[in-house]
Backbone:
């Protein structure tokens, strides 16, 4: 500004010195800046004290105006320069000239200087740097328009403060976001003030305070008034409404005039074609009856039986014609006048006559053959119809017509019109499927009593309030017009690929919509099924084709919805259908394509493979299944064994009372745990055989009857040890064993074995793991043990043929390629899923693949449920699960127990106690029966103990160590 002031002072002095004209020499009326006329003109040189006219046009009135133009030019140049620099700034850490063709990385539209300037602004204020060129542009406008500028220090300070507040708001709204390549969105200033505001006011408060400050700055800086702005908008709205109303009235008037012109033209046309009609000679009233057949005047009228459903006949009687009225009306004007008079008379007298006609019995006459109607009859019918329409409101207002008995007065049904494309499609309203079947008070009371009987006062199941409620808006969840448009587009796209058919039904769902297409005869289903990728390209949507739909002669095309309806676990768990589901292991799977809840019994599955790519929803699906089990089963009914090579996926379930032992994360321990599961399965089958039962359900029922004294206990003696739960177990011995006690059976809990990242486990312990999993899958169902395998890579080396053959239930989330889908489901389709819980399920005993949307459950909800379970008591682990199995000892030494790690302890105990028997040693060292027997036999071969002596202990041949 100092430079502009100096520029203005210098320009003014020079202009005054050169162009000032003394007052005495100025001719009256001559402009003050006119050159002096002094002396004659000399060729080749200008007169003295005379300035040549400027080629640039008229000069400014003063040097001050010239300075304003310069200031405006500088401001606008800076604004354009900075805009170009920011627009082409790519976030280069070191901007420099680049040798190469245009468009090379690092090139800026205004060169290295522009890159440096842009980088400085971006580092300081980030995205808010765009406010600077805008403000510079606005500052330059008053200089050009000749108005007073307000470029005061206060305004400049306000502009800087606006930029700072804008940077802070950008940082608060987009924390961690990058702009211009790799710079923070709010710059260093935004990070400083944005984070400070967030710590003081939180996100919402920061926005409130920031926008309030911006409003205050606008009011003080530019005399901005929000009230004036609202009044301005209101005025615009009022003017727009008035103009719209005037336009509507003009259109309505024009439309009315056009209709009136059409009616006049139609009346003129009828006048020209109207035949000359003579009224009856006797002067009676004219009767106009619209009939389709010729009727003699001397006979009463009759309609054919087939026409009884047509419009009722109407008799319109007018006054007798005057005798002097002409019989033939030749003049068109007279005819029109006569017609109007007849109409008016009919309006007055039609009501009583209509009432009389309605009360009269219809005459019964013989059926007459049809003949073609004459032009006069057609004209009479048209006139009668017009009069009926005019008098209908009057008749309805003056009388109530009761239909005659036995006469159908309904209008004759018209011929069905040709339906437009898409009108034959049936759109099924599936919104009711999303409604929860809430339990009644009686159901809740009954469920509570049954849970108390099952659970008892010692353990409580989680409350439903621990899960977050859903936000499903019950109602139409689809746009019928869009669905019909999509159906037409689908049919058109299929026609492009030589597939002809029509859409029969549309089934909207929460995530996808199914279009059921009925193809023409001769269409190859295999050809249609191969068009999934082509249709996805044409429709710009992922398409899954079900060809054909099971039980129908149609092909299903599943297209994703533009807006998903959220599927929440709580909505499915608190549903009465799940709460009253009486199965051993109820699990929630989700909602099908039309929104119906999908539940399953894990005991009937009985084993499941869950596969899906990263981010497809596999982990959430596991949490849903496990959480739903925890909502229905107590530790006495259900125990879990979890193997998690990833360490963190199943960590929330650690230390809940349902766990047999902590979540296994070591791969060697995982193989040992699976071997224990096989041994437990064999032990349970031995218990079933002793009890004479076949599965865990009948065995537990038998246990209840034995404990109640209803059935005699067939079991012999046993030695008390640890059971599966780590508390107590009964180990059966011979009846003549002096240490044995009478064995009492105990109910067995169901066991669910969950293995996450099965591919990683197979890579490290493939042989042992595959054998254990295959044995469990083949035999563990009846023993109440069920396996769930989860993997990201469902290749054939992970899901081997032996494993796949014994896992009838397969759950596939979105996978990367077709071969993975075929590995899991034996068919394609999983590669076309949408992710985020969208899955395909093939349940046990069915060849049908069902598409289901997995519900959402957050980690916080799972943590709250497990914390509630942990608060009721610490779990009792069975540490024997991770101890080496008998077959591991066999692998170390073929039938040689001396190399067993427990051999030395067994010898020491035998020497000190002077007792030795297999059952006694089994109880002392808590070993398996086979392992204890092998150690005793080894000691016998080494000469440490004597041979078996019937029911007595073996003789100890060594001294205490």
Residues:
């Amino acid at each position: 500004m100092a430079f502009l002031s100096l520029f203005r002072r210098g320009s003014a002095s020079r202009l005054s010195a050169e162009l000032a004209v003394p007052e005495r020499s100025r001719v009256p009326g001559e402009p003050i800046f006119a050159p002096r006329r002094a002396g004659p003109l000399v060729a080749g040189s200008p007169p003295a004290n005379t300035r040549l006219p400027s080629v640039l046009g008229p000069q400014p009135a003063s040097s001050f105006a010239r300075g304003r133009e310069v200031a405006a030019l500088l401001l606008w140049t800076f604004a354009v320069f900075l805009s170009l620099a920011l627009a082409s700034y790519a976030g280069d850490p070191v901007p420099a000239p680049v040798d190469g063709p245009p468009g090379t990385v690092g090139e800026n539209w205004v060169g290295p200087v522009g890159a440096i300037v842009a980088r400085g602004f971006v580092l300081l204020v980030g995205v808010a740097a765009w406010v600077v060129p805008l403000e510079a542009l606005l500052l330059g406008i008053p200089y050009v328009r000749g108005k007073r500028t307000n470029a005061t220090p206060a305004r400049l300070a306000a502009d800087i403060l606006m930029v700072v507040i804008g940077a802070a708001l950008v940082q608060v709204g987009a924390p961690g976001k990058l702009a211009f390549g790799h710079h923070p969105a709010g710059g260093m200033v935004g990070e400083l003030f944005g984070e400070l505001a967030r710590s003081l006011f939180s996100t919402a408060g920061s926005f409130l305070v920031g926008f309030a400050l911006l409003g205050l700055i606008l009011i003080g800086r530019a005399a901005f008034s929000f009230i004036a702005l609202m009044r301005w908008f209101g005025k615009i709205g009022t003017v727009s409404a008035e103009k719209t109303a005037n336009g509507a009235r003009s259109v309505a008037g024009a439309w009315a005039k056009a209709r009136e012109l059409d009616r006049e033209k139609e009346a003129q046309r009828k006048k020209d074609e109207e035949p000359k009609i003579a009224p009856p000679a006797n002067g009676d009233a004219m009767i106009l009856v619209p009939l389709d057949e010729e009727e003699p005047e001397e006979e009463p009228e009759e309609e054919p039986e087939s026409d009884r459903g047509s419009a009722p006949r109407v008799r319109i009687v007018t006054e007798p014609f005057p005798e002097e009225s002409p019989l033939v009306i030749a003049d068109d004007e007279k005819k029109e006048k006569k017609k109007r008079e007849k109409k008016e008379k009919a309006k007055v007298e039609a009501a009583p006559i209509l009432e009389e006609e309605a009360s009269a019995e219809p005459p019964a006459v013989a059926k007459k053959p049809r003949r073609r109607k004459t032009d006069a009859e057609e004209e009479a019918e048209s006139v009668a119809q017009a009069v009926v329409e005019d008098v209908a409101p009057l008749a309805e207002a003056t009388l109530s017509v009761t239909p005659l008995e036995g006469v159908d007065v309904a209008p004759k049904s018209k011929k069905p019109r040709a339906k437009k494309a898409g009108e034959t499609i049936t759109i099924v309203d599936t919104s009711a499927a999303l409604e929860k079947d809430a339990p009644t008070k009686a159901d809740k009371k009954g469920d509570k009593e049954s849970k108390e009987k099952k659970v008892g006062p010692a353990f409580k199941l989680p409350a439903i309030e621990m899960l977050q409620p859903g936000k499903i808006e019950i109602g139409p969840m689809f746009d019928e017009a869009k669905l019909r448009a999509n159906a037409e587009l689908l049919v058109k796209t299929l026609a492009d690929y030589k597939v002809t058919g029509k859409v029969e039904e549309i089934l909207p769902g929460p995530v996808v919509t199914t279009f059921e297409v009925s193809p023409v005869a001769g269409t190859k289903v295999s050809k249609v099924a191969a068009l999934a990728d082509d249709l996805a390209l044409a429709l710009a949507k992922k398409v899954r084709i079900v060809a054909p739909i099971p039980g129908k002669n149609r092909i299903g095309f599943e297209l994703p919805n533009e807006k998903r309806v959220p599927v929440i676990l709580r909505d499915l768990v608190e549903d009465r259908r799940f709460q009253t589901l009486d199965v051993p292991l109820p699990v929630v799977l989700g909602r099908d394509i039309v929104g119906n809840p999908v539940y399953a019994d894990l005991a009937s599955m009985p084993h499941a493979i869950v596969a899906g790519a990263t981010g497809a929803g596999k982990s959430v699906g596991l949490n849903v299944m496990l959480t739903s089990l925890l909502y229905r089963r107590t530790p006495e009914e259900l125990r879990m064994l979890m193997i998690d090579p990833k360490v963190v996926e199943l960590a929330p379930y650690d230390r809940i009372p349902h766990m047999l032992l902590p979540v296994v994360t070591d791969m060697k321990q995982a193989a040992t745990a699976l071997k224990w599961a096989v041994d437990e399965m064999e032990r349970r089958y031995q218990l079933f055989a002793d009890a004479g039962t076949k599965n865990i359900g009948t065995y537990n029922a038998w246990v209840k009857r034995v404990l109640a004294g209803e059935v005699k206990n067939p079991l012999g003696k046993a030695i008390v040890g640890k059971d599966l739960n780590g508390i107590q177990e009964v180990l059966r011995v011979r009846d003549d064993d002096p240490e044995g006690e009478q064995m009492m059976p105990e109910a067995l809990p169901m066991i669910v074995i969950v293995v996450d990242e099965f591919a990683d486990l197979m890579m490290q312990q493939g042989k042992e793991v595959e054998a254990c999993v295959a044995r469990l899958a083949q035999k563990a169902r009846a023993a109440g043990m069920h396996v769930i395998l989860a993997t990201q890579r469902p290749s054939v080396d992970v899901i081997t043929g032996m494993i796949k053959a014994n896992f009838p239930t397969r759950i596939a989330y979105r996978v990367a390629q077709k071969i993975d889908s075929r590995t899991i489901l034996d068919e394609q389709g999983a590669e076309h899923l949408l992710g985020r819980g969208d899955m395909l399920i093939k349940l046990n005993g069915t060849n049908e693949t069902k598409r289901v949307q997995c519900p959402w459950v957050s980690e916080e909800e799972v943590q709250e449920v497990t914390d509630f379970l942990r608060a009721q008591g610490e779990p009792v682990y069975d540490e024997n699960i991770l101890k080496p199995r008998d077959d591991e000892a066999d692998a170390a030494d073929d039938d040689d127990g001396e190399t067993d790690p427990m051999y030395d302890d067994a010898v020491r105990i035998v020497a000190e106690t002077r007792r030795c028997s297999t059952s006694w040693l089994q109880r002392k060292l808590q070993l398996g029966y086979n392992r204890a027997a092998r150690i005793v036999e080894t000691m016998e071969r080494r000469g440490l103990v004597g041979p078996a002596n019937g029911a007595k202990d073996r003789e100890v041949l060594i001294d205490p160590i």
In short: The CA atoms of residues 607 and 807 lie 5 Å apart. The radius of gyration is 48 Å. The mean pLDDT is 72. The chain is about 45% helix and 10% strand.
